[in-house]
Amino acid sequence: MLGNFTYHNPTKLYFGKGALQNLKEELPRYGKNVLLVYGGGSIRKNGIYDEVTAILHACGKNVAEDAGVMPNPTTEKLYEGTMLARRHSADLILAVGGGSVCDYAKALSVSVHCTEDPWKKYYLDGEEPTCEIVPVGCVLTMVGTGSEMNGGAVLTNPAQKLKIGHVFGSEVMPRFSILDPTYTYTVPKRQMVAGIYDAFNHIMEQYFSGTDDNVSDELSEALMKSLVKNSYAALADPTDYEARSNIMWAATWALNTLIAAGKTTDWEVHMLGQAVGAYTDATHGMTLSAVSLAYYRYILPYGVKKFRRFAVEVWHAADEGTDEEVAEAGLRAMEKWMRDLGLSMDLGSLGVKEEMLEGIADATLVMDGGYKVLGRGDILAILKSSL
Ligand code: NZQ
Ligand code: ZN
């Protein structure tokens, strides 16, 4: 049964080849001062920077640049960007990049006019913004996080060894996002597969919770099947437009609040992955793949019916035998797919050492929506078998 919910997603999406031209329509809605935010330089190499800045200048914008947003953006970078955005009196923050750049832009949007320390207020204390919020627009170049159509903004504090996400409300979600699948052709294979697994795992996090059978289950199964099918096509040919566009669109729906509507959700794999990320700065999707099988095998006995359904519906496992047998067949099929993609399958390959495990366990937030609420011993056991 679906629980009660309010659904409102204000992000306007422009999707497809040449979608950037729509930026011309959006820009006049905002003031003159634009802060252009981007990462370590991929957009300069592949020409997206030139296309975006040409439109900004043609629209008469006064542009300042905040470059060098790193994968897993840090508090230090946020403080630096906040000063820059204040000096520029930014009317619009335009993020051009992947989830890191888009998340960072959202964190910036609630920090520019904030008189308190944003890390403490939003991340440690989990408070909501009380200040003016600078609008954010996004040109997406890397697929996976869903950041282009949600309120999530994940930040890392390396000194405190903490990586925390805050899911802000609709006023912080991008006002518009531009999704051109051809922009993802230059994403390195390792990043591409990490993004695909990130999107897949977002769906798992929402699917493996609760016992109710509702429309979200069918939507989730369709999205997962589409990701698996198209991942093989994109691996074979990174410029396969059909595959890249299907992956891009599925990843957006994987985490734009739709499939979570009216149901409980898990998110424990993400909590484990974020703690690993805080200790290693590893690629987000790889931190998830490295802990996933150990986690799902650990909780399988507590949600075996749903794992059986997952095996049959998503992985086409034969619906014969005990729940445990069918469920395990599904996880084996998932493991094969993960290995075919070339995902990181253990924490050791991400630089995790045995002596880090206690600290990672302490940095792992415990969620209560999954099939088992983990204790510290459970977390350590999962981390050890992922090593
Ligand atoms: O920095 P540049 O040079 O641009 O290179 C980036 C970066 O090195 C490169 N890249 C992006 N587009 C490219 C490209 N290279 C060539 N061609 C292109 N078109 O890819 C690398 C990774 O980019 P990044 O933005 O870090 O990846 P992703 O999109 O996976 O974002 C990861 C961040 O998002 C957070 C993660 O925790 C992590 O900090 N997440 C955000 C979520 C949300 N908002 O809801 C949910 C997720 O679960 C996730 O936690
Ligand atoms: Zn994720």
Topology record:
Blueprint: E1 12-15, H1 23-26, E2 33-38, H2 42-45, H3 48-58, E3 62-66, H4 75-87, E4 92-97, H5 99-109, H6 118-124, E5 136-140, E6 152-157, E7 162-167, E8 176-179, H7 189-207, H8 215-236, H9 241-254, H10 268-280, H11 284-299, H12 304-315, H13 323-341, H14 357-363, H15 376-386
Parallel strand pairs: 1-8, 2-3, 2-4, 4-5, 5-8
Antiparallel strand pairs: 6-7
Bound molecules: 5,6-dihydroxy-NADP and zinc ion.
Give structural notes.
It is a single chain. The strands form two sheets. Strands 1-8-5-4-2-3 form a six-stranded parallel sheet, sandwiched between helices. Helix content is about 45%, strand content about 10%. The chain has two domains: about 10-185, Rossmann fold (3-Layer(aba) Sandwich); about 190-385, Dehydroquinate synthase-like - alpha domain (Dehydroquinate synthase-like, alpha domain), CATH 1.20.1090.10. Helix 7 runs parallel beside helix 9 and helix 10 packs across helix 11. It is globular and about 65 Å long. Strand 6 (about 150-155) and strand 7 form a beta hairpin. The mean pLDDT is about 95. It has 15 helices and eight strands. It has about 375 residues and is α/β, with parallel strands linked by helices. 5,6-dihydroxy-NADP binds near residues 97, 141, 145 and 184.
